[in-house]
């Protein structure tokens, strides 16, 4: 693994005579689900007028949230903070069934911006319960997507599994009807290990026909795997509560390249560039391209930057908007 970066005189690291090779990962930044969720809030503001309430951050990115606030969106954590006569949008991460049920009880107007790939996991959970299977759900405790998915089924019929160590402590036997699902924004490698551990302990366990980790998460991790080995340091633009962004940091570090998570260009310490000849750059699925260019501009103030885009996959996925915003 590369040696940790030491804080040094910023002038040495920002010498314009020292070129900086910048490897920019592709794909990066917004995915189709994030594009759709943001457009839902913007369309709701156009159709219903401000304010439009949004339960939880629509996506995990401060820049995006602040931009929507400036247009008239009000972000809340719970539905009881929303006036009955105000429109409300549910975030891209999904919500437990109890949330729309409460909205309907109160005769509220709401728009569900849950990513269609998360909704697919919700439907899978319902089908597995209908078949009498207990669900082992691979995910991170407390993440909104995990709360939303576990809230699709009756309490006591789904168990959260976070680590391989958790598998060894599960109380089930090989006679139990078991199935598994996963959070969509996990590490591809970690999840593979967990699924293998589950299958080894419970050969009878049933999984989804296709993996639940979304295409965007997989593609962004694959892109980091291409740039990290050739980089001295990788910068990941994303929020500290963004699961998919944190996984990009982990992917780089597992390949032996130090990585730092930043939200904006002003968080970059010039001393990080000491001894760095090649810098990798990517962005989590909730980070707009504007923030990538902001980082490139900041780096160009310190060093002579040459850019190269490293492509891991092509993306052309588009998700339809809810009918109530297109009629």
From TrEMBL:
<keyword id="KW-0408">Iron</keyword>
<feature type="binding site">
    <location>
        <position position="242"/>
    </location>
    <ligand>
        <name>isopentenyl diphosphate</name>
    </ligand>
</feature>
<keyword id="KW-0411">Iron-sulfur</keyword>
<feature type="active site" description="Proton donor">
    <location>
        <position position="145"/>
    </location>
</feature>
<comment type="function">
    <text>Catalyzes the conversion of 1-hydroxy-2-methyl-2-(E)-butenyl 4-diphosphate (HMBPP) into a mixture of isopentenyl diphosphate (IPP) and dimethylallyl diphosphate (DMAPP). Acts in the terminal step of the DOXP/MEP pathway for isoprenoid precursor biosynthesis.</text>
</comment>
<feature type="binding site">
    <location>
        <position position="242"/>
    </location>
    <ligand>
        <name>(2E)-4-hydroxy-3-methylbut-2-enyl diphosphate</name>
    </ligand>
</feature>
<feature type="binding site">
    <location>
        <position position="115"/>
    </location>
    <ligand>
        <name>[4Fe-4S] cluster</name>
    </ligand>
</feature>
<feature type="binding site">
    <location>
        <position position="244"/>
    </location>
    <ligand>
        <name>dimethylallyl diphosphate</name>
    </ligand>
</feature>
<feature type="binding site">
    <location>
        <position position="243"/>
    </location>
    <ligand>
        <name>dimethylallyl diphosphate</name>
    </ligand>
</feature>
<feature type="binding site">
    <location>
        <position position="286"/>
    </location>
    <ligand>
        <name>dimethylallyl diphosphate</name>
    </ligand>
</feature>
<feature type="binding site">
    <location>
        <position position="60"/>
    </location>
    <ligand>
        <name>isopentenyl diphosphate</name>
    </ligand>
</feature>
<feature type="binding site">
    <location>
        <position position="244"/>
    </location>
    <ligand>
        <name>(2E)-4-hydroxy-3-methylbut-2-enyl diphosphate</name>
    </ligand>
</feature>
<keyword id="KW-0560">Oxidoreductase</keyword>
<comment type="similarity">
    <text>Belongs to the IspH family.</text>
</comment>
<keyword id="KW-0004">4Fe-4S</keyword>
<protein>
    <recommendedName>
        <fullName>4-hydroxy-3-methylbut-2-enyl diphosphate reductase</fullName>
        <ecNumber>1.17.7.4</ecNumber>
    </recommendedName>
</protein>
<feature type="binding site">
    <location>
        <position position="184"/>
    </location>
    <ligand>
        <name>(2E)-4-hydroxy-3-methylbut-2-enyl diphosphate</name>
    </ligand>
</feature>
<feature type="binding site">
    <location>
        <position position="143"/>
    </location>
    <ligand>
        <name>(2E)-4-hydroxy-3-methylbut-2-enyl diphosphate</name>
    </ligand>
</feature>
<feature type="binding site">
    <location>
        <position position="243"/>
    </location>
    <ligand>
        <name>isopentenyl diphosphate</name>
    </ligand>
</feature>
<dbReference type="GO" id="GO:0051745">
    <property type="term" value="F:4-hydroxy-3-methylbut-2-enyl diphosphate reductase activity"/>
</dbReference>
<feature type="binding site">
    <location>
        <position position="242"/>
    </location>
    <ligand>
        <name>dimethylallyl diphosphate</name>
    </ligand>
</feature>
<comment type="pathway">
    <text>Isoprenoid biosynthesis; dimethylallyl diphosphate biosynthesis; dimethylallyl diphosphate from (2E)-4-hydroxy-3-methylbutenyl diphosphate: step 1/1.</text>
</comment>
<feature type="binding site">
    <location>
        <position position="286"/>
    </location>
    <ligand>
        <name>(2E)-4-hydroxy-3-methylbut-2-enyl diphosphate</name>
    </ligand>
</feature>
<feature type="binding site">
    <location>
        <position position="60"/>
    </location>
    <ligand>
        <name>dimethylallyl diphosphate</name>
    </ligand>
</feature>
<feature type="binding site">
    <location>
        <position position="93"/>
    </location>
    <ligand>
        <name>isopentenyl diphosphate</name>
    </ligand>
</feature>
<comment type="pathway">
    <text>Isoprenoid biosynthesis; isopentenyl diphosphate biosynthesis via DXP pathway; isopentenyl diphosphate from 1-deoxy-D-xylulose 5-phosphate: step 6/6.</text>
</comment>
<dbReference type="InterPro" id="IPR003451">
    <property type="entry name" value="LytB/IspH"/>
</dbReference>
<feature type="binding site">
    <location>
        <position position="143"/>
    </location>
    <ligand>
        <name>dimethylallyl diphosphate</name>
    </ligand>
</feature>
<dbReference type="Pfam" id="PF02401">
    <property type="entry name" value="LYTB"/>
</dbReference>
<feature type="binding site">
    <location>
        <position position="93"/>
    </location>
    <ligand>
        <name>(2E)-4-hydroxy-3-methylbut-2-enyl diphosphate</name>
    </ligand>
</feature>
<feature type="binding site">
    <location>
        <position position="244"/>
    </location>
    <ligand>
        <name>isopentenyl diphosphate</name>
    </ligand>
</feature>
<feature type="binding site">
    <location>
        <position position="93"/>
    </location>
    <ligand>
        <name>dimethylallyl diphosphate</name>
    </ligand>
</feature>
<feature type="binding site">
    <location>
        <position position="286"/>
    </location>
    <ligand>
        <name>isopentenyl diphosphate</name>
    </ligand>
</feature>
<feature type="binding site">
    <location>
        <position position="31"/>
    </location>
    <ligand>
        <name>[4Fe-4S] cluster</name>
    </ligand>
</feature>
<feature type="binding site">
    <location>
        <position position="143"/>
    </location>
    <ligand>
        <name>isopentenyl diphosphate</name>
    </ligand>
</feature>
<keyword id="KW-0414">Isoprene biosynthesis</keyword>
<keyword id="KW-0479">Metal-binding</keyword>
<feature type="binding site">
    <location>
        <position position="214"/>
    </location>
    <ligand>
        <name>[4Fe-4S] cluster</name>
    </ligand>
</feature>
<feature type="binding site">
    <location>
        <position position="60"/>
    </location>
    <ligand>
        <name>(2E)-4-hydroxy-3-methylbut-2-enyl diphosphate</name>
    </ligand>
</feature>
<feature type="binding site">
    <location>
        <position position="243"/>
    </location>
    <ligand>
        <name>(2E)-4-hydroxy-3-methylbut-2-enyl diphosphate</name>
    </ligand>
</feature>
